[in-house]
């Protein structure tokens, strides 16, 4: 029976040089929320009809995002590789607005925090749609799954 969802997600810790407590919290929340509720259906048919659940490992190598997809028993299924050039600006913009958001939380009025948060969500939503476009024909994912995956892609791009 098909179960098109992620049951485990792993980040390649070798590519993460440093992360603040705020970023670590974002990572934990994104992983928790992703595992709790996601839609993830690779579009390539497998000879035995396997259709989930999946374990996914995200890594960045030579400017490309690799999504290593495995069966629940850890048997490899496929690795999708996406160029990250189109994500550079959204990642940079997202980092900048997140910095503003964390500063606002510490020293701004509720109205100012809400304004920054709205801008942060808008950038995040645009990047999620871009990720869905880039995965089109490879993996079917819903919007919330794309948002959480984009958060994790950003975590892989943190530089000290």
Number of domains: 1
Distance, first to last CA: 44 Å
Q: What's the number of helices? A: 4
> Taking all residues together, what is the mean pLDDT?
87
- Outline type: elongated
Largest sheet: 4 strands, mixed
- Strand arrangement, major sheet: 1-3-4-5
Helical proportion, percent range: 40-55%
Order of helices and strands: EHEEEEHHEH
Radius of gyration: 16 Å
- Strand share of the residues? 15-25%
Please tally the β strands and state the result: 6
The parts where pLDDT drops under 50 for at least 5 residues are: none
The chain-level structural class is alpha+beta
What can you see in these coordinates?
48% of the residues lie in helices and 22% in strands. The protein has helices at residues 21-36, 88-107, 110-135, 143-156, and strands spanning 6-11, 40-42, 54-61, 64-71, 76-83, 139-141. With 160 residues, it is α+β, with helices and mostly antiparallel strands. The strands form two sheets. Strands 1-3-4-5 form a four-stranded mixed beta sheet, with helices on one face. A two-stranded antiparallel ribbon has the order 2-6. It has four helices and six strands, in the order βαββββααβα. The mean pLDDT is 87. A hairpin with a 4-residue loop joins strand 4 (64-71) and strand 5 (76-83). It has one domain.
